[in-house]
Amino acid sequence: MKSIVRLFVGVFAAAFALMYVTSLLNSSQGYTGGNTLTIYNWGDYIDPELITEFEEQSGLKVIYQTFDSNEAMMTKVAQGGTTFDVAIPSEYAISKMKEDGLLIPLDHGKLPNMKYIDERFMDLPFDPGNEYSIPYFWGTVGIVYNPDMLDGRKLTSWNDLWDERLRNQILLVDGAREVIGMGLNSLGYSLNDTNEEHLQEAKRKLAALTPNVKAIVGDEIKMLIAGEEAAVGVVWSGDAAEMMWENEKLDYVVPKEGSNLWFDNMVIPRTARNIDGAHAFINFMLDPEVAARNAEYVGYSTPNAAALELLPEEISGDERFYPDAVLTAKLEVYENLGKRMLAHYNDLFLEFKMHRK
């Protein structure tokens, strides 16, 4: 027992010493909470030149870190071991972070550029009054496809994916909400549906799709579709834009039944040390010129109405990525369904993946 205690004491001492040395190194280099800003964002989700410009303008040193899922981001913020001044979670994650006390309310007086955000994207159910979040990018879930590989056919509906001519031609993103939501939407149900009969109906319908599904994949879906390894993919709109840049044959459609309208948003986590700097960065990213440049670089849709006017017509006028009001009205934001129902969605998705095998 004594040896175990000594082991734990040793490990704790080593960890404390590492933290202390890291703190000293940061201080010796001039990196302290007051003159640095730590940003936690998705990978390849900002124009790097804008970070440099912000540093020059603000005098702050930006430490930029990335995550690959909302869940990983929330876990790290909840652990509290790392200082994050600004994070970019999705809308359903914001609901969860609010519940868990992981966010600091925004001071709107320090964000004068909020006025440029399109009113359609403000005051949404996941954050009434934008108390904790400001929209960064938005987009949809839809179908990217190669008409040349489909004998010129166009896809307009989720139900088109069940066409037997698409056997072994579809790639799906590895996401429970996206795939189960697709099944629900194809039946005319909400992608936030919690009715068990509807969920089981969607499960059965998805099982019938398996002959057409070539694989369920992650980020590699962009390379595979652009490289014509499959004719069809269920993807996020920004990924579709990137694929279409690589392969001009591709097209993208938001299915007529409706789909997901998602938002990634700038927030200040409770770990923040430089709250003033965080507000300055958020306000900088809301500047119309900055937001327009960022949208061109990233390829996702900007919620900044003034920035939209600065974008080239081939971007701002593309209804595949800036859908009209009729289609937008059919889009739904993911709701926080609670731990139990989210686990049930994940179980249904796992059963679907196992059924394919």
Describe this structure as you would to a colleague.
The chain is α/β, with parallel strands linked by helices and 357 residues long. 42% of the residues lie in helices and 14% in strands. It has helices at 2-28, 48-58, 70-79, 91-99, 176-186, 196-209, 221-226, 237-246, 275-285, 288-298, 305-308, 313-316, 325-328, 339-356, and strands spanning 36-42, 61-67, 86-87, 134-145, 170-173, 213-217, 232-236, 251-253, 261-266. The strands form two sheets. Strands 4, 5, 6, 7, 8 and 9 form a six-stranded mixed β-sheet that branches. The protein has a three-stranded parallel β-sheet with strand order 2-1-3.
Layout of secondary structure:
Layout: H1 2-28, E1 36-42, H2 48-58, E2 61-67, H3 70-79, E3 86-87, H4 91-99, E4 134-145, E5 170-173, H5 176-186, H6 196-209, E6 213-217, H7 221-226, E7 232-236, H8 237-246, E8 251-253, E9 261-266, H9 275-285, H10 288-298, H11 305-308, H12 313-316, H13 325-328, H14 339-356
Parallel strand pairs: 1-2, 1-3, 5-6, 5-7
Antiparallel strand pairs: 4-7, 4-8, 4-9
Helix pairs in contact: 5-6, 5-14, 6-14
In short:
The protein has 357 residues and is α/β, with parallel strands linked by helices. The protein has 14 helices and nine strands. The strands form two sheets. Strands 4, 5, 6, 7, 8 and 9 form a six-stranded mixed β-sheet that branches. Strands 2-1-3 form a three-stranded parallel β-sheet.
